[in-house]
Design goal:
The protein has 213 residues and is of the alpha/beta class. It has helices at 27-37, 67-75, 94-102, 113-122, 136-146, 151-166, 180-195, 202-212; strands at residues 16-20, 42-43, 46-48, 62-64, 79-85, 88-93, 107-110, 127-132, 173-176. It has a domain at 16-44 and 106-212: Rossmann fold, CATH 3.40.50. It contains eight helices and nine strands. Helix 1 crosses helix 7 (180-195). The two termini are 27 Å apart. The structure holds guanosine-5'-diphosphate and adenosine-5'-diphosphate. Adenosine-5'-diphosphate binds next to helix 1 and helix 5.
Length: 213
């Protein structure tokens, strides 16, 4: 059913979903699987000063920026949020998120916890999901086996993981990424439930009640 056919829908904004979790938990993997399952879900491409990994494409995985370019994005208020993580800057381009939500489409931001908390201040109605590994040993295996990080970076990311997991209490949902498909299905169930929240329908219902009474 389209919004036009539904008396109670229409004109709603899309839902903003934030996905966080420690490095190596599988955020990228889960996000790309989700995007292929849910064609209407829009992915927010972040800006970063981190160097591209092999196979990463500018404008697809990230907008790769110099430090100067990133700092000028901050000065020009182009970012919804930004954070420093293990020596690099990461930030969410603001205009794209706002345009996507205004067009009624859902958008997913794959960002770390400090940035997520800033987004929560601006979008308290957003849906905040924290991805956990089945165990810390499995997290270490995943990040090591991915083969993209030096030993030192793995150590820093594992240290950051402790603080990140301690901040999971600020999220609405916790999903254990045991199997990618199962994790995606749980996220899709959350999105279905969020679309059924009464807050999305009450304005239209109240308006109609006023008209008929
Ligand atoms: N605050 C913030 N964090 C981001 C953004 N983009 C990516 N990140 C996070 O930065 C961290 C490092 O990302 P990356 O270097 O790609 O490594 P990964 O942890 O292996 O995915 C991850 O927790 C990402 O979710 C962003 O726009 N803002
Ligand atoms: N559910 C899973 N089971 C086993 N391996 C996984 C799972 N999810 C992701 N991985 C693997 O773990 C590694 C880290 O995943 P990635 O998506 O890059 O994590 P993140 O984006 O959180 O840093 C990758 O090699 C990926 O193939």
């Amino acid at each position: 059913m389209t919004n036009k056919e539904c008396q109670w829908g229409g004109e709603e904004r899309g839902i903003l979903i934030v996905l966080s979790g420690p490095s190596g938990v599988g955020k990228g993997t889960v996000c790309s699987a989700l995007r292929s399952m849910s064609k209407d879900l829009v992915y927010s491409v972040s800006a970063t000063t981190r160097l591209p990994r092999e196979g990463e494409i500018d404008g697809v995985n990230y907008f790769f920026k110099t430090r100067e370019q990133f700092l000028s994005m901050i000065d020009n208020e182009e970012l919804l949020e930004w954070a420093e993580y293990v020596g690099n800057y990461y930030g969410t381009p603001k205009a794209f998120v706002e345009q996507t939500l205004a067009s009624g489409k859902d958008i997913i931001l794959e960002i770390e916890v400090q940035g997520a908390l800033k987004v929560k201040e601006k979008f308290p109605e957003g849906v905040f999901i924290f991805l956990l590994p089945p165990s810390i040993d499995e997290l270490q295996n995943r990040i090591t086996n991915r083969g993209t990080e030096s030993e030192e970076t793995i150590r820093k990311r594992m240290t950051a993981a402790v603080e990140e997991i301690s901040l999971s209490e600020h999220y609405d949902y916790i999903i254990v990424n045991d199997k990618v498909e199962a994790a995606c299905n749980r996220i899709r169930s959350i999105m279905v439930a969020e679309h059924c929240k009464k807050e999305r329908y009450l304005p239209k219902i109240k308006k109609w009640i006023e008209e008929v009474l």
